[in-house]
Amino acid sequence: MSLRDAIFGQFKKPEGWLGRIAGWIMATRPSNRRRNLWTVELLRIEPGDRVLEIGCGPGLALKASAERATSGLVVGLDHSRIMLTQAWRRNRRAIEDRRVQLKLGGVEQLPMADRVFDKVFAVNVVQFLPDKEAALRAIGEVMAPGATGAITYQPRNRNPTRADTMRVGEEIKAAMAVAGFEMIRSEELFMRPAPVICVLARKAATGP
Fold it and tell me: For a Cys-Cys bond, which of 36, 65, 144, 183 suits 60, CB 3.0-4.6 Å?
């Protein structure tokens, strides 16, 4: 395995010195920054919103979210301690002001109270979820009625195509429908080597 492949293999759960390099790449690569900021913009975060990012990585989108949720709360969840350390450094002031919180764990361990978040999102995390429907059901449990969820994906395999993006986008839509979300739609961002898709949906405003 090449060093490049070893580093990119760390993106699922960064660990050790290779994980720190992977986090640096996530934080500095223009395409990654653009994906994250685009997703935050699509969510239309309001000043008082409670926001959750699943797989927050080095904290780029957390910072952008906190700049919008000025009187709310932004929570970053990640199962990598290295990523939480980098996210802490990037969001230190907002954490000290108690506007940002960091939690260790994965989507299967959502450690928050039920139905509290107005906006929930994940960027390039869905490909690591073994059961998308179960994960989306769990995500729905921490969303307030009428809350918005966003799942963003760009293929990172070798020689990716728009067809790869659209295929996973349809899988996300189908899983969201089964998980009980409504008003499901998608947005596409042109990027090379393949476009990015963001699937947005709303948690039902009524029901259990």
Answer: 36
